[in-house]
Fold Signal peptidase I.
Amino acid sequence: MSMIKRIQAILENLAFFIFCMVVILFLMQLFCFTSFRIPSDSMEPALKDGDRILVNKMIKGARLFDVFAALDNEDVTIHRMPGWGSFQRNDILVFNFPYQMNR
């Protein structure tokens, strides 16, 4: 095997590895966890303004919806994946920002 073919094979393997890692990270963020930044001090003293939290979506299940319908201001049906547990005392829950119908 010549040196050029060897380098080409290494680059192909590296590109495939990076592609697989991006897909895995996207799927993990979609179904398993996501991160948020606390925008205000309304949760003090437990959470301070600017804190970052990691949300476990596997407890109650990830929500899936049609993004393109939401972008077109159509009615969106939200489906929830099955979860693996229930909330416990002192868990921090993350809610959506209130939706306004007349934008």
About this structure: The longest helix spans residues 3-31. The first strand starts at residue 33 and ends at 37.
